[in-house]
Automatic annotation (TrEMBL):
Molecular function per GO: metal ion binding
Xref: Pfam families: Pirin, Pirin_C_2
Name used for this protein in its record: Putative Pirin domain protein
PANTHER family per the UniProt record, alphabetical: QUERCETIN 2,3-DIOXYGENASE (PTHR43212:SF3)
Annotated source species: Gigaspora margarita
Keyword terms of this UniProt record: Iron, Metal-binding
Keyword hit for Metal-binding: yes
Family indicated by similarity: Belongs to the pirin family.
Binding residue positions for Fe cation: H60, H62, H104, E106
Co-factor binding comment: Binds 1 Fe cation per subunit.
Matching InterPro entries: Pirin, Pirin_N_dom, Quercetinase_C, RmlC-like_jellyroll, RmlC_Cupin_sf
Highest rank taxon of the organism: Eukaryota
Metal-binding found in the keyword field: yes
Length: 248
C-alpha cells in the first residue's frame, strides 16, 4: 500500500473557549476559517466539544447535512422538532438526517459533570431527504481492543450500524496499551480516503507504525483503495479512544 499520511495536530485546530463551551474544530467552522481545512470529501465538520454542567446549545436549525454526536463521557440531552427527547451517555451515537430541515437543542443537564463529545457533519448525496433520527449504543466492552463499525451506507447497512446517505463508514475503538487493531479500507468507489481522530482523553496511537498521534490529533490518509489495511497500536499508558472515517 502506497498511502500518504498527513497529521493534523491538535494545537493546529480552530479553538474557542466560551466559558460554558470548550471546543476544537478540525475544519473551518463558525468564526474559525482556514482555506486549507474546509472538509475532507463529504466529511465537513469534526468538533470536539466539552460542555459545562447545566449549559448547552439552544434550539437552532439545520438542513441538508447528516449530523451525529459521539459521546465520550458525561450526558447530553437532545431535543428536536420531530418530537425526540433523549439523554445520551458514553457509548451512544445520536444520528440526525437534517434533510429538508429540523430544529434541535443539545444540553448538559447534569448538575456537576461536563459532557465531552464529538459532533460530526457529513454531506449526503441527496440533500432533500426527509428528516430522520436514530440513536444506537456501542458499549465500552464491544469497543475495547476492537474496531467497531458504527455507520455505513444505507444501501448495504444492517441493524448493527446506523445508515448514512452517502459512501461513508465510521468505526470506533478503545485500545488498551500494547494492543493493535486493523482497519480494512471499504467501498468500491476510487479513490478512497480515511481520516482518523484520536480523542483528547490522554491516549497515544501509532498508525502504520511510523505515524504517531497524541491526544486530539488527527491524520489524513490518501492514496488508498478497497482492501488496503491500516494498523493501529496504542502506545501510551492510557486507553486510546479513536474514530475512523472511511469515505469516497
Amino acid at each position: 500500500m502506497s498511502s500518504q499520511l498527513v497529521v493534523r495536530k491538535s494545537e493546529d485546530r480552530g479553538y474557542a473557549n466560551h466559558g460554558w463551551l470548550d471546543t476544537h474544530h478540525t475544519f473551518s467552522f463558525a468564526s474559525y476559517y482556514d482555506y486549507n481545512f474546509q472538509g475532507f470529501g463529504s466529511l465537513k465538520v469534526i468538533n470536539e466539544d466539552i460542555v459545562q454542567p447545566t449549559t448547552g446549545f439552544g434550539a437552532h436549525p439545520h438542513r441538508e447535512f447528516e449530523i451525529f454526536s459521539y459521546i465520550i463521557s458525561g450526558e447530553l440531552q437532545h431535543k428536536d422538532s420531530m418530537g425526540n427527547v433523549e439523554i445520551l451517555k458514553a457509548g451512544d451515537v445520536q444520528f440526525t438526517s437534517a434533510g429538508t430541515g429540523i430544529t434541535h437543542s443539545e444540553y448538559n443537564i447534569h448538575p456537576t459533570l461536563p459532557v465531552h463529545f464529538l459532533q460530526i457533519w457529513v454531506k449526503p448525496d441527496n440533500p432533500k431527504l426527509k428528516p430522520r433520527y436514530q440513536t444506537m449504543t456501542f458499549s465500552e466492552s464491544s469497543k475495547t481492543n476492537n474496531l467497531i463499525h458504527i455507520i455505513s451506507p444505507v444501501e448495504d447497512h444492517d441493524n448493527s450500524t446506523i445508515g448514512i446517505n452517502t459512501d461513508f463508514h465510521m468505526y470506533a475503538s478503545l485500545l488498551e496499551s500494547g494492543h493493535k487493531v486493523i482497519h480494512t479500507v471499504q467501498g468500491t468507489k476510487k479513490p478512497r480516503k480515511v481520516y482518523i481522530h484520536l480523542a483528547s482523553t490522554g491516549g497515544k496511537l501509532s498508525v502504520n507504525e511510523n505515524t504517531i498521534l497524541q491526544q486530539g490529533d488527527g491524520v489524513f490518509v490518501t492514496e488508498v483503495k478497497q482492501g488496503d489495511e491500516i494498523v493501529f497500536e496504542s502506545i501510551g499508558d492510557k486507553i486510546a479512544e479513536f474514530v475512523v472515517f472511511d469515505l469516497a
